[in-house]
Amino acid sequence: MNHFPLALIITSSIGISSAKAMVSDDVIEPILQRISTSENSKDNDFYMSKYEVTVAQFSQFVKDTGYQVPKNCMAFTDKRWPDPDNPGSWDLPEYIANPYRPVVCTGIRGALDYANWLAEKTGKSYKLPTISQWRYAAMAGKTGRMAFADDLKQQEVCKYENTEDIANIAGFKKHHQVRYKRSVNCNDGAVYHTVVGMYRPNQFGLYDMMGNVREFTRSCHEYSDSKQQVCQQYIVAGEAWHWQPRGVNVLDWIDKDFQGSLEGIRLVLETDDPGRASEATTRFARQLKEAQLAQRQHHLQLQKIPATPTGIMVQSGENKSYKISWLEVKGEAVKYAVYRAMSDSANGHATGFTLLSDNLKSPQYIDSSAPDGAYVRYQVFSYNKQGEGLGSQIVSYGTAKIFKDDERIETEHFFDGQYYWLGKRDSATVAGFSANPDHFPTGIKPHKPAWVQLGFSVKQSKTAMLSFRAQAEQDTRFELWQGNHLVGRYDIPKSDKFATYTASAVLVAGNAPLEVRLDESSWFELDWLEFK
Fold it and tell me: Where do the Sulfatase-modifying factor enzyme-like domain residues begin and end (predicted)?
């Protein structure tokens, strides 16, 4: 069954497009789940919607009232990348084609007004949850990061949530030619937000609490007035398809005027008796099951994205070539792509990972184009018509340049690192250090320091004067280490241009690698280092 007939069914049977004012039995109410609180909870028992509010439900509100949602949404679709100069809206064709997906792009104001309308139409006091209610319901009586598991290896989350996963990474590469380097280690079958209730519920019977879309709460994070009457930022809860889950209790917030396509709505009803469900709600529940069955077929297709190549090896071949090999990846019409990064100290040239060859059908490749004596690194990806999976482990060949303590150290010639990038600035190749590798826009971000390591040799322990050329997004700080020895911590002021800075450094004799490590929550770029 495809989605278009379902859209027609729901429009005709639940009265979304009716011009006359609705009576309460025409209104789709949330499908509720009772949440019994503990004796230690400050909240009384309440009911919470099992699912996020869908397009079908929000459409009724707009049709009944003529409500105007501002068209300034930072919208993600397979054809759109968020752009303030090209904003979207909640009723983009891609968003309303399937009325069983969560409604997005409403902003907090639209969510509050929808809840008020629903309360008025039904005579029931529907509202957004408090953050306390939401967290209690999301944890479902458990402790730790999430109700189903801490899942520190991020291998189980795809059973329970639509998150940043292999399908999402593949979709971005296919639709936007953007490849994020990290995701959870599983495939949930969805690229963007999907039909509600597609995965396992938590122990309270609630779906999508830590995935699909983030959810508004009525709790205020920051007031704009001293009397605390006007909320400037509201707390949002959960995670969306665009991010890996940080955990139920991580604090996050959103400005009252912001509209994005990663936030949605879930409601609570604070009562002992929710009353009977409307006829429209009963029909909606039945039709939702049909929509879930149809959507599951799409998920199954995306779950055919091939696995990450394993067993990758590199060895020298004939005529100064390199042979890269890996284990065959099982699957439907699997092909491979090989990427190479290179540091050629002989001519001062360094590159990040660039495509070397694709459309490979056998699990090996001969690289005969690498300069003699260069330090090379390789990574292999597998793909098919559904998309490209995650990259293999990186393997290297050759000897990285070892810098002496009396020569300029060009940081792009590192031999190992994480959360970095290489870029061209003023004709120089520089190394960038990411302060937010998981691209969270707000809230408390995981502490994942970026670093690179360079070959380094010091003949004699000494105190030296360090010079370095850098620029920073905000005032920030980085560290230099020789193995376990701290060379020093160095501040960089905010600047939109590269500048040269000096400071003292304490070096110890030895051949331990020199590690450049970001120590703050703002990114910076580094061109070179020099000890005098």
Answer: 43-244
Residue 406: CB atoms within 10 A of its CB come to 11
Q: For position 327, what pLDDT does the model report?
A: 98
Three-class DSSP category at 298: helix
At 98, list the tokens: 């399937």
R_g of the chain computed on alpha carbons: 27
Global confidence as pTM:
0.87
Burial class (CB in 10 A: 0-12, 13-18, 19+), 360: middle
Whether 12 has a pLDDT exceeding 60, the answer reads no
- Using DSSP, state whether 64 is helix, strand or coil: helix
> Does residue 103 have a pLDDT over 70?
yes
Which DSSP string corresponds to 92-159?
-HHHHSSTTSBP-S-HHHHHHHHHHHHHHHHTS-EEPPPHHHHHHHHHTT--SSSSS---TT--SGGG
Query: With contact defined as beta carbons under 8 Å apart, do 296 and 197 qualify?
Result: no
What the block records as the tokens of 12 is 């005709």
Q: Rounded to 5 degrees, what angle do the CA atoms 136, 283, 125 make? A: 40
pLDDT at 400 over 70: yes
CA dist 407 and 121 (Å) reads: 75
What distance in Å separates the CA atoms of residue 490 and residue 505, rounded to the nearest whole number? Answer: 9
Of the candidates 461, 449, 455, the one whose C-alpha atom is nearest the C-alpha of residue 514 is 455
Contact 195, 292 (CB under 8 A): yes
Rounded to whole angstroms, the Cα distance separating 49 from 35 reads: 10
Angle ∠(469,413,445) on CA atoms, nearest 5: 70
Q: What's the pLDDT band for 21 if we cut at 50, 70, 90?
A: low
